[in-house]
Design a protein that fits this description.
Layout (H helix, E strand, L loop, with lengths): L1 H9 L2 H9 L5 H11 L8 E5 L5 H10 L4 E5 L10 E4 L6 H7 L4 E6 L9 H22 E12 L4 H8 L3 E7 L10 E9 L2 H5 L6
Parallel strand pairs: 1-2, 1-4, 2-3, 4-5
Antiparallel strand pairs: 5-7, 6-7
Length: 208
């Protein structure tokens, strides 16, 4: 199985393109597709990237927001330095992460977090949904009004309830599967644009 995985990865055009262009992971192509189809980023945005290792999304987000923007990459795993990106070696859902973030707010919250794969579809799906909920709980507290939320989830019977929880908090909400996602994979991406939840009621707002 391991040999087959390595062979498939070597033959994967997105994997080869990511390696050749220094993007750290093929996942960068997924975020790039989303950013080209949805107005997730603006120059100068503050971005919170959850589950950032190995850094493909943080690197790309840094390009999108430019020198005036900031990117905070959150992951307890090893993450090699990225110029202009702050690393926070904490786990999502812990008090240590909240303390590390202080009172900072963000225009964009990203989550490409994946569960440890068990091979049992129902278990992996449920764990994936739990990770999105953890990311969403943090995003609801940290997003400014008008902000964007992007999260990966494995498709399954719990997804509809998850979407019903998140979608009403945004002006626009979409579910999509980028071309770089492997065809057999059940992964989907949820994209919320124009956050209108707690941040709006507190008076904070994304810069026009």
């Amino acid at each position: 199985m391991a040999r087959r995985f390595l062979s498939e990865r070597r033959n994967d055009p997105y994997y080869r393109a990511a390696r050749d262009s220094g993007l750290r992971s093929r996942a960068a192509f997924k975020l790039d597709h989303l950013a080209r189809h949805f107005p997730i980023f603006r120059p100068g945005d503050r971005v919170l990237d959850l589950g950032a290792a190995p850094g493909g999304w943080a690197l790309l987000a840094r390009e999108y927001v430019g020198d005036r923007g900031t990117v905070v990459a959150v992951d307890p795993r090893k993450l090699d330095p990225i110029p202009g990106v702050e690393r926070v070696a904490r786990a999502v859902g812990t008090p240590e992460l909240l303390r590390a973030l202080g009172d900072r707010r963000f225009e964009v919250v990203l989550s490409d977090m994946s569960p440890r794969i068990s091979g049992a579809y129902a278990t992996d799906h449920a764990r994936s949904v739990a990770l999105v909920r953890a990311a969403w709980q943090l995003a609801r507290e940290r997003l400014v009004a008008g902000g964007s939320f992007v999260a990966k989830v494995f498709d399954g019977d719990l997804r509809a309830d998850l979407e019903r929880e998140i979608a009403p908090e945004f002006d626009r909400f979409r579910r999509t599967k980028p071309p770089a996602s492997r065809e057999p994979s059940s992964e989907m991406y949820l994209v919320g644009l124009g956050f209108r939840g707690l941040a709006l009621r507190s008076g904070a707002a994304r810069n026009p």
